Amino acid sequence: MGDGEPVFVIAELGYNFNTLDEALRSVAAAAEAGADAVKIQTFRAETITTRSVAFPPEAGGVNQYDEFKQYEISEDVHAAIFARAREAGLTAFSTPSHPADVELLERLDVPAYKIGSDDLTNLPLLTCVAKTGKPIIFSSGMATIGEIDEAVRTFRASGNDQLILLHCVSNYPVRDPSVMNLRVIESFRKLFPVVVGFSDHTTTATAATAAVALGARVVERHFVLDKSLPVPDAFFSADPAEFASLVRTVREVEAMLGDGVKRPSVTELQMRRDTRKSLIAAHGIRAGQRLTEADLIVKRPSVGIAPRDLPLVVGRMAKRDIEADEPVTWDLV
After folding, report:
1. Can you name the residues that pair with 139 across neighbouring β-strands?
2. What are phi and psi of 268, to 5 degrees?
3. Is 142 helix (H, G, I), strand (E, B) or coil?
4. Do the Cβ atoms of 138 and 114 come closer than 8 Å?
5. Following DSSP, what letter does each residue of 212-270 receive, concatenated?
6. DSSP 8-class letter at 322
7. In whole angstroms, what is the distance from residue 247 CA to residue 103 CA?
8. Mean pLDDT of the chain
9. pLDDT digits (tens, 9 = 90+) for 172-201
């Protein structure tokens, strides 16, 4: 991941499944839609939340402990999901919320970790994950620049500089485009010595498209096999068709960005020849005739002498007869 590499697209499965079969079919669908990776969430209700707090209304308003308890998955289910992802050619990893979750994921030898926005200031967990020595993708929703800087320094102090920082707005979904502040991506690229990406909580491909244009090298989007599934994030997650459309758009944008060097494209060369202008004989010119401006006209195509060189041509003599409407080239004067 990084500059010069294709944008890395992550399908965030989270816990958008009720059964192992749904999870495995979700992995296959994400691969078919063009994802590079799938990510789930690793947690235990007892270690992620108290029993008394509810989600905000926008996220369903339900008791957090009850929801997390319902969607806990076993180590065996983790292993089956990761195995199916590897079979499909996908990178598979997870977001832990507690050191015990990290231990589980280490037993399964995940290749990378994700830190959610909720744990950005959980420095003990950041240190625990950093010490695995594996790449860390971390989201910055709800954060200040100072908090992000502290997180980066915490990771690096533990000897881990394989960091990918995602711009993120922690609303589910983001309904007001004006809160996206996507230029933060440019700021992150200037401020931090890390790969920068975008975690998308909108419901269209617009934000991800703009993020890639601004320099995001990673895009993460919530993914669900079917929006009709009774899972918490289904209503704002991308289904397979939407995710495939997102991937196509991202690939088109990164292809369009190029290297930043302005020059005629290969596809423009014929158009450049035929539609740029040059010096053309305004009428028939005899051999030996000294040329004046009245003998020349500037028009298409561009195979003659460039218009900027008109002063260098006036006063020269024609080497041979030049027909009316013939491009005037240097070998003719």
Report:
1. 166
2. -95, -10
3. coil
4. yes
5. HHTT-SEEEEEB-S-TTSS-TTGGGSB-HHHHHHHHHHHHHHHHHHTTS-----GGGHH
6. B
7. 33
8. 97
9. 999 999 999 999 999 999 999 999 999 999
Indicate the length of the chain as a whole number: 333
CATH topology of domain 8-257: TIM Barrel (3.20.20)
Residues 179, 184, 185, 187, Cα dihedral to 10°: 170
**Local structure of 6: helix, strand or coil:** coil
Structure tokens belonging to residue 264:
């005629």
Which residue(s) pair with 96 in the sheet? 42
Task: Tell me the one-letter amino acid at 254.
Answer: E
From the number of C-beta atoms within 10 Å of its C-beta (0-12, 13-18, 19+), residue 150 rates as middle
| Entry pTM | 0.90
Average pLDDT of span 83-111: 98
Two structure tokens written together for 66: 């009850």
Match 């790449």 to its residue by tokens.
135
Q: Find, among 239, 240, 197, 204, the residue nearest to 218 by Cα.
A: 197
What are the extents of the domains in the chain?
A: 8-257, 266-332
- The residue type found at 38 is V
DSSP 182-220: TTHHHHHHHH-SSEEEEEE-SSSSHHHHHHHHTT-SEEE
Structure tokens at 234: 């289904």
What residues contact residue 187 under an 8 Å CB cut-off, 6+ apart?
A: none
Which pLDDT tens digit goes with each residue over 199-252?
A: 999 999 999 999 999 999 999 999 999 999 999 999 999 999 999 999 999 999
Architecture of the domain defined by 266-332 = Alpha-Beta Complex (3.90)
β-pair type (91-96, 37-42) = parallel
Q: Helix (H, G, I), strand (E, B), or coil: what is residue 13?
A: strand
